[in-house]
Amino acid sequence: MQTLTLSKCIRKAFRLRRENVRDSKMASCPTVFSRNAFHAFNETLLASTVNYRVITHGTNFLTFRRASSDRSFKEFNIQKFMDEAESGVIYLSLGSTVEPTAFEDLGNTFVQILGRLPQRIIMKWDPKLLHSVPNNVKVQKWIPQCEVLILAYELYGLPRSQKLLEKHFHFERENMPHIKDIVKNISVTFVTNHYSWGYVKPNLPNIVNVAGLHFTPPKSLPSNMQKFMDEAEFGVVFLSLGSTVEPSALDNLGNIFIQALKNIPQRVIMKWDPKLLQNIPDNVLVQEWIPQNEVLNTADLIKYLRRADRFTNLLHFFAHNHNHAEEVLNLPEIQNIIHSRDHYDLVIAELFYLDVFLAFGYKFKAPIVAMCPMNLMFFYSWILGNPYPSSYVPNQFLWYTENMTLFTRFSNTVFNFFSDHPNCRLFITHGGLHSALESINASVPFVGIPILSDQYYNMAAAEHFGIGRMVPFEKVSVKLFSEIQDVLYNPK
């Protein structure tokens, strides 16, 4: 049986391009090659996307470019407003239970900031509270948010995927079905989820939970780091903000972490630029690069502080996804597959906003196995025909669990590595799904500092199940030490 696994083919193509064409545009983007498969797909291969950007806790920004749709918002003239947005649209909403009058002048602050952008702005606010509104901003007291959020996939994603499909699979155009039909022809979907983590909800038989597939055995540590950890009498704290974060963009956060952790008896390994830190204590080892998987699997590790998302470049994180997807499809290695006459019995493709790659299944007349690196999102449940009753199934982009109140039900509808060593007692994380699963797998409680996306839900679920504590990122300070102490030594 011959299987086409697109993620392996694309990663191999990336590796070859990086080795042979280091001065090219693709080779100049380190995040393409340095991050794991999920983040590499998320950043470079997305043919379509819904961009959730957290500005403040509870603020959702949904960005999508102009696209056609047979559905409209005629009652608010929003459809025309969106169709004429050459640079795209930004949607701002603080939810259905927030009273703008309680935020004093925040609305005018939003208008002043967003009004300078080339995009058009749809803003859910009371226009009477705003001093002046620029021409690129449309303000309504009520916006059909459910329509905006759910149709974003149709308004932005599918039309762009269709264009890529027609361009790169042009020789199949006469018989190639529309991308809407292709994405509905998935045989099996593997979802990064486990029944012990989440909520009771109905799933179709072809939705299979496969949480934990990303676990990999560690390699040996560098000798100096191994010695540093072996001699740690009380264990080690590992602090890392991921492979693509620029510490210089985080102001004084590095020194805040040092102040919060310098008085603990454990040693600290910190992935940071040492030139940005002041008064590094003797128990802290600072390096710009650290073999994270190996450190996390070391027996003496008892705490892990990690976040794998970006800060300064979050604004552009999704802005060039369509161009990156085009570059991927233009790679000679991928073009060879597209024009290949080989036969494949099975096609394995990513389901995280990568609809255009599902066309390989149609080309080779092979069943498609979709891999979803997150829990199954509401719009993919809709595509696959999987039930997603939003009245009681939480949206993973919100911070609700299944114990939602009447008001949060309205908002919801609208809208690795730890060893089993006994010294592993606490996991400090950004609240990503994989990190949460790794902590559960090791039976270790965790403190989460969510930043965006599903991290708020994950940490809300952790608190609900009594296995974790959430600390908002904007409240990270030396007080983080007290939270760590409480989780470590509180019998609960």
From TrEMBL:
Q: Which UniProt keywords apply?
A: Glycosyltransferase, Transferase
Please give the coiled-coil regions recorded for this protein. none
Which InterPro entries does the UniProt entry name for this protein?
Answer: UDP-glycosyltransferase, UDP_glucos_trans
Return one GO MF term: UDP-glycosyltransferase activity
Name the domain of life this protein comes from.
Eukaryota
Q: Say yes or no: keyword Zinc present.
A: no
Pfam families linked to this entry: UDPGT
Hey, which family's this protein in?
A: Belongs to the UDP-glycosyltransferase family.
What is the designated name of this protein?
Answer: Glucuronosyltransferase
Species, as recorded: Parthenolecanium corni
